[in-house]
Each structure stands twice: as C-alpha cells, then as structure tokens.
Design goal:
There is one protein chain. This protein is of the alpha/beta class and about 325 residues long. The protein has 12 helices and 8 strands. The protein has an 8-stranded mixed β-sheet, sandwiched between helices.
Length: about 325
C-alpha cells in the first residue's frame, strides 16, 4: 500500500486530538487503521492515547471505541468479541433492535501502551491469546509509563533515565535490559506476531493488513517515541525510529504461522551511541566514564540481532 492509497482512506482518528506534537502514537494508529478495509471496533487500555483522544465531552474517534482499565483491555475485548459472535448467529429478526443491520465483517483492534501491555495488562492479554479470540493487539512501546509521568516500565531500555530510574552517582539510569515482549507473545503459539516501526510505513501497513487476515489473535509491537520524556525535537520522530532500527535496538521481523522472517537488515549498522545522542534521557551515557556501559549495551543488541538473523536463515533452508 503506497502513500497515495493511504492518503485516500477515510480518517478514523481525526486531527485535533490532544496528543503532543511529535508523538508517534497518532501516526502509528492512523496508519494501522488505514490498512484495514473492514469496519473496526477499538478497545483501548488506559494510556496517553486514551486520555488525549477522549477528553470529555469530546472524542477524536470516528469509529466505535471502548475504554477500559490498564489491566483488562484484553479481557474486555474477549467479552465483546464473543458477544458479537453470538449476535451474528441469530437471524436479524431475532436480534436486538440496534443489531438488526450489524455487519458480519467487523474487525477488533485492541490498543495498549507498554505499561498496559508489558506489565499491568500482560495477564489478561496472555489469557485472551491462549483462548484464541479473534483480534489484533497493538502495543505502542514508548518505553515507560508516560501517561503518569515517565516511570520505568518493563519496556524501558537499559541506561534510560526515568523518574523512578534516574541517572546519578549510584546508577546510570535503568539497570536492566527491557523485557522481550514480542518473544513472550510468540510463546503463546498464535499465528501472527510482528515488530514494526513508522520509519517503514509500507512494512507497518502490510503487517497490519496481514494481522487482520489471520485466524485467531495476532500481535504487533510498535516503537512509539515520546518526545516529551525521551527528549528530542518533535520534528525528529521518524528519524528517531530510523536510528532505533539501524542500530539493532528495534529489529523489524514477523512470525507468520511459525515462519520467521527478518524484514530488514541494515547495510551498515548505526552505532547505538548515535541513537543515545538523539535523546536527552540518555545524555548521561555520553560521559567518558560510561563508555564501557555503552559498549555492553551495543553488544547486547548486536547479539540479539545476530540471533534473529540466524533464525531467519534457518527458516529459509
């Protein structure tokens, strides 16, 4: 799907919402919705996206939208999806008045940030995946609890300074590497799992379209830079995503019915130090005394990338 085709799609998330300038969330969601041709129902966990698009009495959504708490968006989706299936089994004359003309091709999109997915909402998501409900879950990963003030989450990368993992004399930001959520989701043996980035919009929209075609649940993990808490110029959002992919921090890949495909391999790896330089949350890592830590982090992501490269090669044999 090219840019001209995408631009001709009706917007399902309108402009005029209150997300910050430079926020990747509306770009991510608009691209995903543009890739889906069918009617869509959104189930949205508590998050920046939820708060900033539905400040009472206004809404930026032009499609059915349901909000629930951090921890239970997937559980809510499970109930909605199964109720929809029950209604469709009834003849139109036997349905509730509001459902007599209900379309039979509605798609369900569940959206959560990393706080509501990596951490608080993982239990209900895991249960919904195991039960096999028909939905696409999209996690927009901005690497911390941004909605409540930039506290560290399971998605926060090692070395990132947050309000609960500040850099100082004792610690240089968060001590731990981020959770590999995409692999955790893959461990549920669902038919489609992917990582994507708006720096490659064609790859993202193709994955969203494919995910909605899949039988059973599917999952996409999306990098979603937060200019306020990451600390970068709002005009640099796409560039930040590019650097994440080029430095091996955020590989683009998919697992379709067990077949692993690495969608992009950088011709020349960008040193992760360049990604750190682009964001104030890593400014302490630029000090000479932290050179060893930066090297350790680079080796970690290079090793992870080598592992998935090997896996992709093995799948082609």
């Amino acid at each position: 799907m090219n840019l001209i085709e995408l631009s001709q799609k009706e917007e399902r998330l309108t402009s005029g919402h209150r997300l910050c300038a430079g926020c990747a969330e509306p770009i991510n969601i608009k691209l995903i919705l543009a890739a889906i041709d069918e009617p869509v129902v959104i189930i949205n966990a508590t998050s920046c996206l939820e708060v900033a698009t539905t400040i009472y009495p206004y809404t930026a959504w032009k499609i059915p939208w349901i909000h629930n708490a951090f921890e239970n968006a997937s559980a809510t989706a499970s109930g909605v999806i199964e109720s929809y299936k029950v209604i469709l089994k009834k003849k139109p004359k036997d349905r509730p008045k509001w459902a007599k003309n209900l379309p039979d091709n509605v798609k369900f999109l569940v959206i959560g940030g990393d706080g509501g997915t990596y951490d608080i909402g993982l239990q209900s998501l895991s249960g919904a995946l195991e039960r096999g409900h028909q939905f696409l879950y999209v996690c927009y990963d901005n690497g911390a609890y941004m909605n409540t003030g930039n506290q560290r989450s399971g998605a926060t990368p090692r070395g990132s300074s947050t309000t609960t993992s500040p850099s100082g004399k004792v610690h240089q930001g968060k001590n731990e590497f981020r959770k590999d959520l995409t692999s955790i989701i893959e461990g549920h043996h669902i038919n489609y799992v992917a990582q994507a980035s708006i720096s490659n919009f064609a790859d993202l929209t193709r994955k969203a379209k494919r995910a909605m075609e899949i039988e059973g649940p599917s999952f996409i993990n999306l990098l979603s830079p937060c200019q306020r808490s990451w600390g970068f110029d709002p005009s640099k959002t796409i560039r930040i995503c590019e650097l994440a992919v080029q430095s091996n921090y955020w590989p683009l890949y998919e697992v379709d019915h067990g077949k692993f495909t690495l969608n992009y391999t950088p011709k020349e790896r960008t040193p992760i130090l360049e990604w750190f330089k682009s964001q104030k949350r890593f400014k302490h890592l630029l000090k000479p005394e932290n050179e060893g830590l930066v090297q350790e982090i680079q080796e970690h992501y290079d090793n992870e990338f080598a592992r998935i490269q090997k896996r992709a090669e093995d799948c082609q044999e």
